[in-house]
What does this fold into?
Amino acid sequence: MRDHLGEREGVTVLPVSFATAAQVDDHVRFFQWPFPFAVDPERALYRAFGLGRASAWRAFGPKAVVNDLWLRLRGRAMGPSRQADVLQLGGDFVLDAGGVVTYACRPPGPDARPPFTALREALRRTARGAPGSAAGGPQGPPPAA
Amino acid sequence: MALVDLGSLAPEVPFTWQGEAVTLRRFRGAPVLLVFLRHLA
It folds into this structure.
């Protein structure tokens, strides 16, 4: 994924987890992920980027159940540890070289993430210095001040 | 969406990266894709 998203061209792909460092280490070893994670157990970055929590309906409703079953049927491997908070939402952001957010996607539920092509295009536009690539994904609420 | 400068958003929010306490300032100088995960499973 990192290669496809342009890390070879100087783009840094930084996955962020709110798990503890020990939990992340367990997963990195289990899945043999070759890249470093940002560990944010206090969720300060999550809050700064306006990432809230899903409703129980969004997290456990029919769409989420079907999506989870589909992933399991496709053979998704399960990692070694479980976190209690399954309602925390994720998100995807592109920052330019100066730290300005040029793309933001804050999905309203756990079963919605931007397509790979949207992220790749946002990175390309940002690398070219073209702002305003945020139109590709759901924005959600603005970040906390 | 209005572009948001991290200078006013999250300049000094600390997190751990490769065992060190850093902020997003550490990554300036090149585009960054931040992927905030949900729970690990």
